[in-house]
Amino acid sequence: MAVYTQVPAEALADFLGRFDVGTLVSVKGIAEGVENSNYLVDTTDNRFILTLYEKRVAEGDLPFFMALLDHLAARGNPVPPAIPDREGRLIHELEGRPACLIRFLPGVSVTRPTPPQARAAGRAMAGMHAALADFIGERPNTLGYEAWMPLFDRCGSDLDTIDPALRPVLAAALEQVVPRWPKGGDQMVIHADLFPDNVLMRGDIVTGLIDFYFACTDLRLYDLAIMHSAWCFDPPGNHYQADVGQALIEGYAERFPLSMGERAILPTLAMGACIRFALTRAWDWLNTPADALVTRKDPRAYTRRLAFYANNGGQVFL
Ligand SMILES: Nc1ncnc2c1ncn2[C@@H]1O[C@H](COP(=O)(O)OP(=O)(O)OP(=O)(O)O)[C@@H](O)[C@H]1O
Ligand SMILES: N[C@@H](CCO)C(=O)O
Questions:
Q1: What are the Cα distances from residue 243, in Å, to 131, 226, 305?
Q2: Which domains does the chain possess?
Q3: What is the pTM of this model?
Q4: pLDDT tens-place string over residues 90-138
Q5: Best mutation site among 49, 52, 193 for ligand 1, i.e. most ligand atoms within 8 A of its Cβ?
Q6: Which residue, 254, 240, 252, 255, is CA-closest to 315?
Q7: Do residues 100 and 92 lie in contact, with contact meaning Cβ atoms separated by under 8 Å?
Q8: 1 half-sphere exposure, CB direction, 13 A CA radius
């Protein structure tokens, strides 16, 4: 998360007055993340996360996200539902932005996952997929494979200001991956951003799955490919951690065994994940407001992963 919209203490105290959550004790902006504005809020009763939805989250999608969190929480998944106000409303407006008060979950996100942590996280994703089998909501993936080329074009030659190698590398990958993207397949609602920073853990136990604001209808295995690309490399993307990768896949496959056909498409899906995150990181790099409390993420960490999957994808998922 990040802080793009400042919330004065008086406005927050008024806002909390709509809920049965006690009164404001303290509030702190959370610097992690890049998408929405987030605050850690302590009241006389409890601790909460206050999220103000920014740029990429459409207000009209919020009911879908809230229904998704309720569905998962009701089936025992460790996700944080939004807190209703006294009139039962979940979605509010604060400082001109859509806003929700969200249950705080314990745990910390790991930056260098160990194999046992990756195994537990793979299991947690499988548990989430199993629980979503009967979820009836749908949301198209606005950052799916059809959106990549237009986003690449919108970044245009500005990409060269980040690194002159970015444009040719991404152009070649788009040409390779987009025509091969599997059409149809096992589609369902997926998380689509289950990075280590969106999984809270205590030791090797998963205590929270958070940040569902990219959740969408897409290939189930694309969710696993996104997770693999995010969990199984050192943060700069220079080194693949084979033991972490193996544990992640095994943890997931306990519930959803992978067929040979599925293993064969995973390299393409993983390359697609790398294109998606390299492009959105590049776009954000070029368009982040100078005054936002946010740490920009390097798109090249994803072109390095892309090169790895292009060269080794076949072996990694066998
Ligand atoms: N429900 C929660 N309980 C506890 N901590 C939370 C909760 N939601 C968010 N956080 C904390 O806030 C941080 C940022 O949250 P989050 O990843 O949702 O932000 P974002 O801007 O959407 O980020 P991203 O760049 O991953 O899309 C998390 O790393 C976590 O520490
Ligand atoms: N998890 C993403 C941010 C959300 O698009 C990244 O690290 O680039």
A1: 27, 17, 16
A2: 9-103 (3.30.200.20), 115-316 (3.90.1200.10)
A3: 0.94
A4: 999 999 999 999 999 999 999 999 999 999 999 999 999 999 999 999 9
A5: 49
A6: 240
A7: yes
A8: 21
Ligand nearest to the CA of 283: 2
- Is the C-alpha dihedral spanning 91, 94, 98, 100 positive or negative? negative
Token couple for 69: 């969190």
pLDDT at 64: 97
Mean residue pLDDT across the chain? 95
What ipTM was estimated for this complex? Answer: 0.92
Question: Does the structure show a pLDDT above 90 at 35?
Answer: no
Q: Which ligand is nearest to the CA of 100?
A: 1
Contacts of 217 (CB under 8 A, 6+ apart): 138, 139, 140, 141, 187, 188, 189, 190
* CA gap 161, 141 in Å, rounded: 28
Residue with the larger pLDDT of the pair 37 and 289: 37
CA angle at residue 176 from 314 to 242, to 5 degrees?
30
| The ligand 1 atom nearest the CA atom of 103 | 1
Q: Is the pLDDT of residue 1 over 70?
A: no
Task: Give the nearest ligand 2 atom to 277 CA.
Answer: 8
Determine the distance separating the centroid of ligand 1 and the alpha carbon of 126, expressed in angstroms.
21
Q: Give the Cα separation of 267 and 181 in Å (integer).
A: 11
Calpha distance 273→176 (Å, rounded): 13
218 lines ligand 2 (CB under 6 A): no
223 lines ligand 1 (CB under 6 A): no
State the Cα–Cα distance between residues 277 and 287, nearest whole angstrom: 15
Mutate to test the pocket of ligand 2, among 54, 212, 277 (most ligand atoms within 8 A of CB): 277
Q: Cα–Cα distance between 33 and 211 in angstroms, integer?
A: 10
